[in-house]
Amino acid sequence: MKIQPILQIVTPAQWIEAARSARDSGGRLVALWGTDDRDRDGRFAVLAAFATLAGVSVVKLPLQPDEAYPDISGLFTPAIRMQRALRDLLGIEAAGARDTRPWFRHGGWRDDEFPLRRDFERSPPARSPASDYRFVRVEGEGVHEIAVGPIHAGIIEPGHFRFSVVGEKVLRLEERLGYTHKGIDRRFQDFSIAEGHRLASRVSGDSAVAFQWAYAQAAEAACGIEAPPRARWLRALMLERERVANHLGDLGAIGNDAAFAFALSQFMRLKEDWLRWGARAFGHRLAMDRIVAGGVDADLAEPHAGELLALCDAVEREVRELRDIFDESSSLQDRFITAGILTPAQAREFGVTGLAGRASGQAFDLRADLPCDPYGVLGVRKVVYAAGDVATRVKVRFEELAEALRLIGEIIRGMPAGALRAPLPHPASGAFGVGFVEGWRGETFVALEAGADGSIRRCHAHDPSWQAWPALEHAVIGNIVPDFPLINKSFNLSYSGGDG
Amino acid sequence: MIPIMLKILRTGIVTEQAPLPEPQWASRATQIQDEVLRLLGRALVIRQVDAGSCNGCELEIHALNNPYYNIEGLGIRFAASPRHADMLLVTGPVSKNMEQALRIAYEAMPDPKLVVAVGDCGRDGGIFGEGYATCGGVHSVIPVDVTVPGCPPPPLAILQGILTAISTAPRP
User: Fold this and answer.
1) Which end of chain A has fewer CB atoms at under 10 Å, N or C?
2) Model-wide pTM > 0.90
3) Whole-angstrom Cα distance, residue A275 to residue A271?
4) Quick check: A181 and B52 CB within 8 A?
């Protein structure tokens, strides 16, 4: 499988070289994380995963306890926040990094305590006082700041946005995230490999399937097994269902943010029909806990298969009708077209993947580029445009929704019979695997290192929002403040997924 | 405009029956009275606070606004400010990074200051538990009236939790 890399142990010079070579070959930084190996060899390590059209590569740089690693944010901009997060959690630093402000640590634990160190006390003493966070100031005549959050004005996840504006025009947006940081990476170590899918389901609830599948891939690679064919087809069915559910919800919510409440009612009604089928057939509306290491914990039988085919037809027909209404609505198009442009150059710079990337010319889709079973057989039509505005992200959603419905039909008709789960042996301590899945939002990555007796020594889950959040700061520049909710919704990034 | 009107007419009204309150979920021993709609003489106003959830609960709270549940039709609406709210609907294990914001929102809310903790995380931290980054449930930060179990609880259960809090709230 092309997505299973060999873990390469590198020197500091090779670390930089790996990043440079990935960048030169048009690759992207998937994730950057670290681990505490002092119990084994007295050292920490920083790891990075890169993706190119040829596959995934993972490099690991061991570090002496007080040694810094070379900063790669000059080669890959998205490394900036990942390196800041790594400093907060593990206490290892990128040498020469310009932005050394904390990212996850808002004062909930002391700045000399590092939760991912193996000797970290689980119940830290009193919290330290919330430190002042230095936002970048924009100065000039008539410039003022608007501070929003962490609690936002709707049913939304928390985060802080600091706008610098002149009149209504946004000069700069700076995000401060981390409010939903739950310590997921650390928490994984309390689970066995066989149980970790439950936590993976809840890295970002709207991407439960993507994370479960990525987790299962990583666990299966570490254990040296493969899920049975029928399980893999069922996983694809769940993943495409998750894509449809989220696209339906987003199309309604984006319409609503442009004062088109009709869209919200219609799309949310379709989404509810869709989720209720999930509750009936799989026993869970969001398919949490249904993909396990080694297979799946669900099956598809009649009458549910026939019901889903009929539902796909109905949704396809109604969405086509609603798309015509969107296209004919001049008030909607006026809000959508040219709002929140993310140029292809910016999307490339920030390594944006998924639907937001494909709306800005980033022609990556793991289902087509590095297809795992059954996508190789199904053949996924990639949807790629370059305009990068709200209208284009809406268009990509409409077309990917139609493609997902087609795929679901193909999956139901072509699904092989057979076992749902393979036995999960205990891997050797130190066995390593990754999972890489094209979730509805983008590239969803999990890296897992096994401990002794089927335990998890280290598991890192990475949401594509890491790459897209910094890009959003640029997409909003020059737009008016009242368009921000619309632009933000058109990306619909995960707070929880990035906060971890 | 005509296609929109036709679509609305053809769709019809899909709103379903509201559920009855679930007395067993009340986490304090106040009288369970048959006054479910007592406060609904005027709108009940809710401020939802995500205190570190995985966003699964938010998806289901959003669903309450869909036409099947039609929560606004029952006289319940969501507000942007806790100062306008009768109730906080709180999700998440309460991350350490949201602890202070949750407390400020609670203090800003006028009486009757109802609090419904949604989901297993809101109950006791759920799968995330209590750790360096989580407080382990809403009750560990602010007083809770009703807890709705589930991961995430389906929309109907969340609605039941809201109605339970109303029906068990002390009379003004």
Assistant:
1) N
2) yes
3) 6
4) yes
